[in-house]
Amino acid sequence: MPVAPLTIGIVAGEASGDLLGARLIAALRAHLPHARFTGVGGPRMQSAGMAVLYPMEKLAVRGYVEVLRHYLEIAGIRRRLAAHYLERPPALFVGVDAPDFNLDLECTLRSAGIPTAHFVSPSIWAWRGGRMGKIRRAVSRMLVIFPFEQALYEQAGVPVTYVGHPLAEMLAQAPGRAAAREQLRLPAAAKVIALLPGSRVSELEQMADLFLDTAGQIAATVPDALFLVPLTNRPTRELFETARYRRDRGELNVTVLFGHAHEAMAAADVVLTASGTATLEAALLGRPMVITYRMPRASWWIMNNRRYQPYVGLPNILAGEFVVPEFLQDEATPENLSQALLNLLFDSTVHTRLASRFAAMAQELRQNSAERIAAALLPLLEGRAAA
User: Fold this and answer.
1) Beta carbons of 203 and 197 less than 8 angstroms apart
2) Which of 173, 178, 194, 288 is the most exposed place for a label (fewest CB within 10 A)?
3) What are the backbone angles phi and psi of residue 248, rounded to the nearest 5°?
């Protein structure tokens, strides 16, 4: 009689988690070719073979005010997911980032005897270090992607494995600037700026106007500048296009892309990006960048008063210093952003220095993550019956 496949639950809450979740699925499927994956994810995880129970966009909310606005819907999804997994227990549950959603779900499932793992540490080193007690209750194993995180969990008695960052391996194969421009049919000698205002609707609501006004100021100085805007889905594209014409920015030489963020950054001379995973992606691609972020004032007040470090961008956190400029909240103005981008655009010395720093970061983060992920999670599946 054939053995039923193992079922593995997995939940990711945004575009970066979708990418990492797909890599995790591939890492496990290499050892468990018949495993079934169910949960919440985006197009990459679906392409990797996951059956989606709820669309990922429902969880893609950031900031206290925004979460409160969607709290009932999000809490309802978490409650129904918990009921689903308790009724049909998976051999393993993995939460991919999204700690505000996943840690509570992991606590519920682990207390019922289901092994749980969490892939991508919450930013306990940046703010909310008091979460460690909850993490200890929630996870059977934490998978961390930055080298300095492992010691924090070992000291707290949480089983942990440093797996490196899958993006460091993926982007090592990314096209160079010339190849990316050829792929996107861009002039080889053009001044190209990639604009990444975020992957969530709430981020576009806060930053579409800011990015467009910044582009307008750059175009006033560099009239032939080309702007690439990769967006993850139709709602974010519609928000951006609406803002563009509302602010009478139709004259800008803007190309909006569905996806293709890596190609856009690879093709660019400089990148303007919202704080988040895109900052690390730009660094791994060796691109100079300016980091910015805006959120509702109440959310900013709460988060700013709880952070432990002066920087929020991942390249600066990894470097332990400001290697690229950050302009947050009230400092995030078109004047500040455009001036910083123009400074980078024409400074070849800074380009060379940043390329060297970013190459060292990429080397440290390349750890054959697929094998490390599998080695960390397969022991949790030993002796588990299929769902």
Assistant:
1) yes
2) 173
3) 55, 45
